[in-house]
């Protein structure tokens, strides 16, 4: 599965699939510990801040194992443009830390499981010093299986939980059924696991649930993952100028659009429109202070303006029909030249280029910089430091926990190390080859080396495409330019659990957004939805967040 595999997937599905490509992401105490404050009573609600949080977090010791070709700036990933021969790779785990435990791990998988005994899993087991029994579940329906497993009495030793599944009873299950890793990782204890110590502090903060450090994180870039792409090769050939306002974008669409020639200007651009108009992120960062009052994303003029503008592209006929029908694969449509602009996860830059350049070596795509809708600098809200975690069964014994941490320390090795090469590419000669500085997976590698270990823990974000160094440079430089405009939303970096009574409060907004931009509903319908949202709990949720804000401050970052 790849990001944007349908023209307008749900955000949950989109986020899940993006992780894959980027990798190829009863009881309990109140969460709130805000500078001596309380949460107002309810269990497993709120967040953890102040001295309590500081005492929980692992020390940060950046890795010195490798030096990137392109350093991080403004919240970007680091970049690598080369792949070294195996003999020249750094070693970040000089001593095998595993003690031989047999570990059961549940994680999502987009693909067909290679099955037990395959040489990739065997090699990883031997390298770490553990034996993993994978309980992989179809990533497309992972949430359903996750809920069932956490409600049962039979929970694997470790379980991966993506942030987009933190609804309903999942947060309560995390608080009640998963181990406190603080005794092993808080403060200087993490130094026993150097690759885990090199994970940025913000990513760990998001792994704090119910006042305990429970989640091993997959760190994320601070910059947006949604990227407005354009066909740079065709733009250059046709003399098209990259737009810097939404009006210029609309006018460019008018110039490009040629349905009779099977060329449409764009795909659905709603996700980019939210950035063009400075729309607040989704929960829990979907609030801003206006004259001392919290205003929600859905109540803002910017939100409605973004929908109206996206709707105008549809009504003018600029959007490819597959996007309106929510069918097809927009990356393929874009790559074939049938739509010249689309938005997707930034990992599509490499995925599309690698495929297309096999037959069309001159294929080039670019990412347009975000802009304020009327020109000038955009308002870009900083992304969550982590959105996917691996948790350890609270009934696991000390040896099992330590062996899971040994595995996590191995999987968190940075690019350019022996450990990362094995995790990401398998065995040389069996799963991949290295020729002229280019890593290529064999057929066996494509069938066996899936993103499974990625979900245990990963290093600080990086982008490494040795076969297409221009793409690495493009990605990192785009992130750095967007990062110059980052703004922290309220509650940034906090792991906030809303009261369960509000779990379904926002459920209708995404489908209504789709209907409005496609002309099936009116913008006025969204205003009515917001009115209903307020009376059905939105105003009470606002009061809950305001109390949280008063107790914690605007951000724990």
UniProtKB/TrEMBL annotation:
It comes from Streptomyces silvae. Belongs to the bacterial solute-binding protein 1 family. This is Extracellular solute-binding protein. SUPFAM superfamilies: Periplasmic binding protein-like II. Coiled coil: none annotated. It holds the Pfam family SBP_bac_8. Keywords: Signal, Transport. Its main location: other. InterPro entries: Bact_solute-bd_prot1, SBP, TAT_signal. It is found in: Cell envelope.
